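Practice problem 4.
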C-alpha cells in the first residue's frame, strides 16, 4: 500500500544506521535511476554489549559512549528527511530489561526514532543487504553474520530469505561467556566449542536438508578473519575450513586474550576475536562448510534497500499482513469494509490530528487483521488477537511497529485499555490513541458484517472532541448502531474524548 506522497524521487538521500552490539555503522546513499550510490560511511566502535550486566542493565560509561556516537551520526543526517532515515537497534538493545532507558536518550542524541528488531528480522535485513551485493542467483545462498551479541544464519534465493535463525552468540557475548578472565587454553576452547555446537542442533539439520550452493559471511568478525587468513597466506577473498583451523591453532598459542597478536588483526578487535572465531569454527563444523566468500555488504545496505521497498510496491510488511490474514482465516470482505471506512475517517481528520503516511499504513494493517483473534475464540478475541500480533515473528516489522499493531487490535472494542496505550513509547502514544479511536469507529460501524455500503459519514475533530455526522434516515434505520455509538461515547469519555453524534 505505497503512498504516492512517499515515492522516492531521483537524487534523494537515504541513510541507514545499524546500532550493533559491537559497532555503530551508518551509510548514506543517493537514489539515482533506481540504484543506490554510496556517498558516505561512518563507523564507531561503541561495544554496547560490553556494558550489559546480568540483569539487563547498561553501564553508564557505555551509555555515554553510545550517546556520543549517536550525536555524531545525528549531525551527519540532520538535513535528511526523517522518512528517509532508518536506525535499527539489534541484540544488545533487545537484551535490556528497560529498553526505554536507552532508547529515549538515544533518540534524542540521534534526532531520529530508533527501531528495535527481532533476531529474525535482523536476519532478513542482513540477507537483503548481502544479496544486493551480488548478481541475482537462482541458487540457494547461505549467509552468516557474526555480530557483537548474536549471530544470524539465513538461507535465501535471489532477494528472498527462505530460512532465518538467530543465536545468542556474538564476538563480544561469546568472549565474555567463555573467556571472561581473558585466559586462553586448548581445554577451554574444546569445552566452549562443544557447548556452542550444541546450540546449532535446533536448526542445522533443517538447513542442511534445504541446502545451498554458495556461502557468504558478513560483519566485522568475518572480515577480520578473512584479513588474517590473507596475511597468513591461507586464502584471499574467502575463508576456508583449513584456514579457520590454522587460525584457531595460532590464536591458542597465546595464553591471554590481551596477548593475541595476529597479522592483519586490528587492535580494536583483539579483545573480541576469540569469541568471534569460536562461533565461526562451530559454524564451519556443524554446517559442514568448506569455503565462505566475504561479503562487502551487510545489514546497513539491507536497511537502505528496505527503505526503497517501503517507498514502492515491494514493502515486505504488506506480504506479512496478507500472510497473517491467510494463516488465521480472516474474513477478507469484512476486513476490506473496515479498512475502507477507517481510512475514509482518517483522511478527513489527518491534518487536524497531525497524522502522517506511516500512521495511515498502520491503521490500514490493523483494520485488515483486527479479527485474527477469532481463530482462537470469539470471546475476548481482541485480547487474543493482540497477543498473537505482539508475539509473532512478522517479517518487515520492528518491535515498536508490532507493539503498535497489537495495541490497536487490543483496544478496538469495549473498554479502551489505558495500560495498553501506556505501553507504547512516548512518541507513539498520542498518534496511537488517535488511531485507536478511528479503528474503533470503523469496527463499530461494521459490527453486523453487512455487505451494504455505508453512507458517507463526516467526521470533524479537535484535540479531544469528535463530531460524527450521519444521515438521519440511516440512523433511524439502524437503531443498534445508534445504541453502539451512545455506548462508544461513554467509553471514549473515560479516555478523555468527547464524541458527539449528529444527524443531517
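Answer key:
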Amino acid at each position: 500500500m505505497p503512498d504516492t506522497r512517499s515515492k522516492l524521487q531521483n537524487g534523494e538521500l537515504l541513510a541507514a544506521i545499524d546500532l550493533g552490539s559491537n559497532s555503530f555503522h551508518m551509510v548514506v546513499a543517493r537514489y539515482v535511476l533506481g540504484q543506490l550510490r554510496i556517498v558516505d560511511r561512518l563507523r564507531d566502535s561503541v561495544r554496547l554489549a560490553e556494558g550489559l550486566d546480568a540483569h539487563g542493565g547498561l553501564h553508564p560509561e557505555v551509555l555515554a559512549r553510545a550517546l556520543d556516537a549517536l550525536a555524531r551520526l545525528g549531525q551527519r543526517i540532520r538535513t535528511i528527511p526523517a522518512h528517509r532515515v532508518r536506525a535499527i537497534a539489534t541484540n544488545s538493545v533487545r537484551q535490556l530489561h528497560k529498553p526505554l532507558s536507552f532508547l529515549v536518550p538515544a533518540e534524542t542524541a540521534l534526532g531520529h526514532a530508533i527501531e528495535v528488531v527481532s533476531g529474525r528480522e535482523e536476519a532478513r535485513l542482513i540477507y537483503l543487504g548481502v544479496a544486493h551485493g551480488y548478481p541475482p542467483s537462482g541458487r540457494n545462498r547461505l549467509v552468516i553474520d557474526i555480530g557483537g551479541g548474536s549471530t544470524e544464519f539465513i538461507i535465501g534465493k535471489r532477494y528472498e530469505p527462505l530460512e532465518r535463525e538467530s543465536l545468542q552468540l556474538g564476538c563480544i557475548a561469546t568472549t565474555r561467556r567463555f573467556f571472561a578472565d581473558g585466559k586462553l587454553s586448548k581445554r577451554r576452547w574444546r569445552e566452549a566449542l562443544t557447548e556452542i555446537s550444541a546450540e546449532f542442533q535446533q536448526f542445522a539439520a533443517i538447513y542442511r536438508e534445504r541446502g545451498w550452493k554458495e556461502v557468504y559471511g558478513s560483519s566485522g568478525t568475518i572480515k577480520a578473519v578473512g584479513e588474517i587468513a590473507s596475511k597468513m597466506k591461507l586464502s584471499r577473498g574467502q575463508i576456508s575450513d583449513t584456514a579457520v583451523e590454522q587460525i584457531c591453532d595460532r590464536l591458542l598459542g597465546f595464553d591471554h586474550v590481551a596477548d593475541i597478536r595476529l597479522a592483519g588483526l586490528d587492535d580494536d578487535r583483539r579483545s573480541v576475536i576469540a569469541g568471534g572465531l569460536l562461533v565461526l569454527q562451530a559454524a564451519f563444523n556443524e554446517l559442514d562448510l568448506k569455503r565462505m566468500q566475504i561479503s562487502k555488504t551487510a545489514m546497513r545496505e539491507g536497511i537502505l534497500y528496505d527503505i526503497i521497498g517501503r517507498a514502492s510496491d515491494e514493502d515486505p510488511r504488506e506480504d506479512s499482513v496478507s500472510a497473517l490474514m491467510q494463516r488465521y482465516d480472516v474474513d477478507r470482505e469484512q476486513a476490506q469494509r473496515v479498512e475502507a471506512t477507517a481510512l475514509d475517517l482518517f483522511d478527513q481528520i489527518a491534518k487536524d490530528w497531525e497524522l502522517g503516511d506511516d500512521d495511515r499504513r498502520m491503521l490500514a494493517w490493523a483494520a485488515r487483521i483486527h479479527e485474527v483473534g477469532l481463530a482462537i475464540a470469539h470471546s475476548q478475541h481482541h485480547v487474543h488477537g493482540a497477543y498473537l500480533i505482539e508475539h509473532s515473528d512478522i517479517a518487515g516489522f520492528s518491535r515498536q511497529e508490532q507493539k503498535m499493531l497489537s495495541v490497536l487490535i487490543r483496544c478496538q472494542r469495549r473498554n479502551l485499555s489505558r495500560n495498553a496505550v501506556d505501553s507504547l513509547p512516548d512518541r507513539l502514544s498520542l498518534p496511537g490513541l488517535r488511531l485507536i479511536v478511528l479503528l474503533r469507529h470503523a469496527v463499530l460501524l461494521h459490527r453486523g458484517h453487512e455487505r451494504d455500503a455505508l453512507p458517507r459519514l463526516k467526521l470533524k475533530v479537535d484535540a479531544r472532541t469528535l463530531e460524527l455526522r450521519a444521515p438521519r434516515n440511516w440512523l433511524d434505520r439502524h437503531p443498534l448502531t445508534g445504541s453502539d455509538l451512545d455506548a462508544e461515547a461513554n467509553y471514549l469519555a473515560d479516555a478523555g474524548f468527547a464524541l458527539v453524534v449528529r444527524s443531517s
